[in-house]
């Protein structure tokens, strides 16, 4: 029996986000999402897609000259066979990143995958959907991303970092593109001395997908 995953697109580009930012990367974008964030920039991946057997996905990825793969969406954890895909990629010596919106349990993911968990801020309209139990399941190599629209989001993110003792984690603060000034966010970071990275969407800055 084939193990299928609903795929929106598979492509090869420069990794625009995460601490691996700037590296050539193969992207697997799954289709389907359980949230509807106000600033979503991949609305086309919220539904639709095409069923791909895991074996076909691996075949497509193998043609790209990289051993770095990011699984994104949509929301990858909605896909029943995503763990099998991750295990097969790791078996083939790929470094695997997975972006998730934080609403679904990350506890069953393979240990070697790097989780980039988006903690939804109030301006997303989806912050009440967070699964806060995931915070305790983050590994040392995992990353936490806050996407910020304004100063209220920033203050809220600061509160979450303090409440859950996240200051020793890999924290990314990302301004919504063309909405919150990266200069302003930089000034807030410098003033507060947060142990967090200013995180810009590199692919949008250089004008690629």
What portion of the residues fall into strands of 2 or more residues? 15-25%
Write down the Rg.
Answer: 17 Å
Sketch the topology as an H/E string, one letter per element. EEEHEHEEEHEHEH
CATH topology: TIM Barrel
- Count of individual domains: 1
> How far apart are the termini?
34 Å
Roughly how much helix do the residues carry, as a percent range? 10-25%
CATH architecture: Alpha-Beta Barrel
Q: What overall form do the CA principal axes indicate? A: globular
Number of helical elements: 5
Annotated CATH homologous superfamily: Aldolase class I
Q: Tell me the strand order in the biggest sheet.
A: 3-1-2-4-5-6-7-8-9
Number of strands: 9
Question: Any descriptors?
Answer:
5 helices, 25% strand, TIM Barrel, 9 strands, nine-stranded mixed beta sheet
Characterize the structure shown.
A 9-stranded mixed β-sheet has the order 3-1-2-4-5-6-7-8-9. The mean pLDDT is 95. The protein is α/β, with parallel strands linked by helices and 209 residues long. 22% of the residues lie in helices and 25% in strands. The chain has a single domain, classed as TIM Barrel, CATH 3.20.20. The termini are far apart.
Topology record:
Elements: E1 4-14, E2 24-30, E3 50-53, H1 54-61, E4 68-72, H2 82-91, E5 95-100, E6 114-118, E7 143-148, H3 151-163, E8 170-175, H4 182-192, E9 197-198, H5 202-206
Parallel strand pairs: 2-4, 4-5, 5-6, 6-7, 7-8, 8-9
Antiparallel strand pairs: 1-2, 1-3
